[in-house]
Amino acid sequence: MDKAREIFDAMVQSFYDPQIVHAAAVHFPIVIAVLGLLGVLVLTLTGGRFGSLRWMLVVLYAAGGLLGWLASEAGERALHSFDEAQLTTEAADALAWHQWMGDYVWIGLVATPALLALTAAPKTGVRVLFLALALLASIGAAGWVGVTAHFGGEMVYARGVGVPESDNNITKIGIVAPEQPAPPVTPPQEKPPDGQTDQTQPDPGAGIKNYDPRFPPEKKEGNIFDFDNVKPAPPPDEEKPKKP
């Protein structure tokens, strides 16, 4: 019983979070705009003779307009959950388009049921005229809602705007990354002049008597140099004795 109470309290508290309300409410206008367009198309093809379908569409679109307005208001309040100044240019553009188009979503969803209600006129010419206008309004409403949803999806799923950091979202794509310090520059090492050795390199002949750099000590496994077996180089001007 206590667990059920906790779940119920969490559900009630979620309605006070504008981000959750916006995320939940925006899906209803999308579905209503698509289903409503199909219904208006059927009503137009039948000449508006199905009165029950007409009034179902009027109620459906009216509910969509109300939910669209609710989603827009919740979205405006959700803007305070992050700093817009930290957004990248792409994320800020997507947010601006989504915000501007979202402010007018409800207009198309309210204009369509008003025109549908006028299709109940007894005269055929008037009914056909308002059926055509209602069809155009439903097409415009569906297109407007679709483009608005596109910018909203790009803003959240592609740019990461409004998505809190977690183990699955370590970095925010839509947030400007802080400037990193430049790596230190290592100055180039000067080459020693001819005839001089680089003092920074170890001298392999250090500590070896009669060491000649032309005959370096033999490198063996396990030791860098085996100094016990180094043979001194012969004097350069001494000739070897000839055998008799």
Commentary on this structure:
With 244 residues, the chain is mostly helical. It has a domain of 135 residues. It contains 7 helices and no strands. Helix 5 runs antiparallel to helix 7 and helix 6 packs antiparallel against helix 7. The longest helix has 35 residues.
**Approximately how much helix is present in the residues?**
40-55%
Biggest pleated sheet: none
**Cα Rg:** 41 Å
Low-pLDDT runs of 5+ residues are: 166-173
Oligomer: single chain
Offer a quick outline of the entry.
Helix content is 54%, strand content 0%. The chain is an all-alpha fold.
Blueprint (SSEs and pairs):
Blueprint: H1 2-14, H2 18-25, H3 27-45, H4 51-78, H5 89-102, H6 105-118, H7 124-158
What are its keywords?
7 helices, elongated, about 240 residues, mainly alpha
